[in-house]
Amino acid sequence: MRKTLRNYALIAAMLLASVVTFAQSKVTGTVIDSETGEGLPGASVVEKGTTNGTITDYNGEFSLDVSAKGTTTITISFVGFQSVDKTINLSETQSLGEITLSPGANELTPLEVIASVAVDRETPVAVSTIKRTYIEENASNQEFPELLKTTPGVYATKQGGGYGDSRINVRGFNSVNVAVLINGVPVNDMENGRVYWSNWAGLTDVTTTMQVQRGLGASKVAVPSIGGTINIITQTTDTEKGGSVYSGIGNNGYKKTAVSLSTGLTEKGWAVSVQGAKIEGDGWVDGTQFLGYNYFFNVSKMLGDAHTLSLTGFGAPQRHGQRQNMQSIATFRNAPQGLKYNSDWGYLNGEVVNVEDNFYHKPQISLNHYWTINDKSELSTAVYMGIGTGGGGGYATEEDVDGFEPSFRDYRTAGAYSPYDLDAIVELNQTSSDGRALGYLRASRNDHQWYGMLSTFTTEFSKKFNFLGGLDLRYYKGIHFSEVTDLLGAEYVLDNNDINNPNRAIGVGDKRDYYNDGIVLWEGAFMQGEYSDGPLSAFVSLSGSNTSYQRIDYFQYVPGEQETDFQNFLGYQVKGGANYNLTRNHNVFANIGYFEKAPDFDAVFQNFGNNINEDAENQKILSYELGYGYRSSKFSANVNLYRTAWKDRTFTRSYSNQNGDLLYANILGVNAIHQGIEFDASYQPTQALRFAGMLSLGDWTWQNNVDGVTVFDEAQNPLTTIPTLYISGLKVGDAAQTTASLSMDYDIVEDFAVGFVYNYYANLYANYDPLSRTTESVQGVDAYEVPSYNLVDVKANYSFKIGDLDATVYGNVQNLFDVEYISDAQDGDPATSLAVYYGVGRTWTSGIKVKF
User: Fold this and answer.
1) What pLDDT does 79 receive?
2) Contact 450, 474 (CB under 8 A)
3) What is the pLDDT of residues 730-744, one digit of tens each?
4) What pLDDT, on the 0 to 100 scale, is given for residue 715?
5) What is the pLDDT of residues 223-265, one digit of tens each?
6) End-to-end CA distance of the chain
């Protein structure tokens, strides 16, 4: 490590020594909002045909160094406004004065329309937007959810600490109920709604804008946005010509190398962008080694003035070790590894084996067609596909002829807190007289095929009224099975779970335990009317969808009985809102919406079989929100009040009784209330100094007790009825209900900037199982409350020239003070059964990016 650091220091010194100063002209100006008369912060200012650009400060002012001679063109743009080109002669003037940007009928690009981008002081939703520059300066070794931790209502953690294992909650709702869209295309799993962030690890390198719309959001399609919508917009024809090379290092062997290249928009209307990266490391947590690649490409062609075709593809193949099992607080205290302790890995032949691991590759390709029908109408269509392959590892055991079944946990290299001794399992397998495995490694696979089409038509009926409508069609096939991955020295293992081939001898790569497919069909349509007149903008949106589920089980049923009929659930969404700009500084907005969404796949087919839950019904959500905003040249602020009522939440539970029998319960009538207040503000007293902060106070509770919950056995025979589950008034667990942050960015000199982020978390209650709340004595007793904690991250970046190339050195430290804190917890007695993940300690990264 010391040698590596010395090498990087030497490289940095050589790069700094090679800086050459060229004669340049400085172009200045102020970008003004035509409606408010105020400076427009965050507007893009780019020397046309180059990668040379900057953004305006909070006063709308900018300063851009230009090395061209004679005449050059400067393009000024901002989301929601018409772009302006200014051509100047550098030998005569370097000041553009005031440049006024005006909103127009088609102020959003076609991609932004199909992606449902919200516009400040116009779209009546609570929204936070982060730009490319913020991502570059703060990404470090953080994942997408962690970049949003300064957003009100957001709680993000790394969970077990493995690469890509992070999670996010918005307003108390987990990823199942937070819609994630990439260029307008939904990526939530069609069966269970989850988002696996390791599939999208490379997007931080190609994202131009990421927007979090809290609550119902601005999305027109009927997506599961109970908590909010995360909108990710990647590069397209707006990418300037050039490229970059990045190299970085960090704690625990972290290394990243990335390359990007873009042609810009050529004279013949082509634009091509490609990006690739490799990321590897050992992980802060023991046994979480990782290796990942990511790639991205976009090929766009403008066909005259009316049509544009854009082909985009991206993926992030990876494999990483996981810490799957939470532990007691005492275990972490007693383990020699401390908070880095992980029980889920081992050694085989002197090599690390990540017994619990994750491996996946989900390339997604989309073809977008943008058609400008006339000066009032546009049609945007995206046809896409995603093919996912991979899963997660683990171990399995079998009984020998004498009834002995080994426990992997008993085979450790040096005591209870040491890694698995897989060599000892190999020796155990070799004692078998017939070559059968008593212990082996397996993987749970979750492959899938996903095809879809999303088409949006927009037209301007008048200067005050726009109409939008479209179709959302999807086909999804999930392929679920378990397979043998390593027999650990044995010749075969017996599997008796396929009734069509009982007592099979199987080897590596063969399916075991279960094998079934889940088919999901989705047909949706949506329409929206938008009205804008001076300071008032309003919308009404209506969408409907039919979700069809089918299950095919190849192991538990004989041919002819393996397929179920499609189970259909009609859902709909209706919402509306209005924003009113009281003055050029003040605005208020309100929105309200109601929608019904289909129950999850596993709530329809009970107990991992083809048994259909006749009581499954739509989840019902009513949400409304009030907001206020203030904008000025130096200070801006937002206040939002929200309330979401969630009725008939999908709540299914499988568990084993004292005899080891698998039991199942479908808990109907579970209702919850999520309400709170959010505040965020930013202040820029000078061009070089910027502050931002937020405070989010949530009150998320279960609304009612649940009576008469029936428990079934594996054959779906009713066994017993739980009279009452006592959950009324209990706090919703799994996310901090109080969060706050404060950040500062300071440009010490023109090319050297530093910053910090402080985050505070409180009122975080452990996740818990409602089936554990069966006695009246627990009524009103909340789950374990995690101690509040606060974290500080710091950063610095320095920009300089290498010849005529732009270079930037980045440095980041997360959890600067190495705070020990619990980030995730599963309820139980703190002395015995409470299980937790401790958060990651101090980490750091540094790297250099050279643009050309």
Assistant:
1) 61
2) yes
3) 999 999 999 999 999
4) 60
5) 657 888 888 888 665 567 888 999 999 999 999 999 999 888 8
6) 30
Mean pLDDT of the chain: 88
* DSSP code of residue 838: E
How far is Cα 820 from Cα 835, in angstroms, rounded to an integer? 16
**Token digits of residue 846:** 């540094």
Give φ, ψ of 403 to 5 degrees. Answer: 85, 5
HSE of 841, CA atoms in CB hemisphere, 13 A: 13
CA–CA separation, 108 vs 115, rounded Å?
Answer: 10
Closest CA to 810 of 752, 764, 762, 761: 752
Structure-token match 């089409």, residue found: 453
Distance from C-alpha of 579 to C-alpha of 599, rounded to nearest angstrom: 33
What local confidence, expressed as pLDDT, does residue 488 receive?
97
Instruction: Show the 3-state SS of 752-785.
Output: EEEEEEEEEEEEEECECCHHHCCCHHHCCCCCCE
The pLDDT value recorded for residue 202 is 67
Longest CA–CA span in the chain (Å) reads: 95
Report how far residue 211's alpha carbon sits from residue 485's, in angstroms, rounded to the nearest whole number.
40
In this structure, what DSSP letter does residue 31 have?
Answer: E
Structure tokens at 555: 């192991």
**Max mean pLDDT range (175-179, 198-202, 574-578):** 574-578
Q: Confidence band (pLDDT; 50, 70, 90) for 687?
A: confident
Taking the C-alpha atoms of residue 177 and residue 505, their distance in angstroms, rounded to an integer, is: 42
CA dihedral 94, 754, 200, 143 (to 10 degrees): -160
Percentage of residues in the chain having pLDDT higher than 70: 91
Percent of the chain with pLDDT over 90: 59
Comparing CA positions, the residue from 608, 599, 613 lying closest to residue 718 is 613
How far apart (Å, rounded) are the C-alpha atoms in residues 852 and 848? 13
In Å, how far from its chain's centre is CA 506? 38
Specify the range with the lowest mean pLDDT, choosing from 114-123, 326-335, 592-601.
114-123
CB 229 within 8 A of CB 219: yes
What tokens were used for 223?
A: 């997506």
Length reported for the chain:
852
Distance of alpha carbon 756 from alpha carbon 26, whole angstroms: 30
Q: Which CATH superfamily is domain 1-104 in?
A: Carboxypeptidase-like, regulatory domain (2.60.40.1120)
Buried b (16+ CB within 10 A) or exposed e, 421-432: bbbbbbebbeeb
Give every CB contact of residue 677 below 8 A, 6+ residues apart in sequence: 639, 640, 641, 642, 696, 697
Query: What stretches of 565-703 show up as alpha helix (H) in DSSP?
Result: 601-604
Tokens of 491: 């010749």
Specify the fold of 242-851: Maltoporin; Chain A (2.40.170)
DSSP helix/strand/coil, 252: helix
Cα separation, 661 vs 753, whole angstroms:
61
Query: In the predicted model, is pLDDT for residue 105 greater than 80?
Result: no
Q: What is d(CA 311, CA 18) in angstroms, rounded to the nearest whole number?
A: 39
The domains of the chain are located at: 1-104, 242-851
Cα separation, 583 vs 578, in Å, equals 15
Three-class SS of 211-224 = EEEECCCCCCCCCC
d(CA 556, CA 845): 50
For residue 659, the model assigns a pLDDT of 63
Could you read off the pLDDT of 574-587 as tens digits, one per residue?
Answer: 999 999 999 988 99
pLDDT per position as a tens digit, 626-674: 999 998 878 999 999 999 999 887 777 766 666 656 677 778 788 999 9
As beta bridge partners, residue 47 has 74
Residue 840 has pLDDT above 60, yes or no: yes
- Tokens 């902060």 found at: 693
Distance between CA atoms of 411 and 375, rounded to whole angstroms? 72
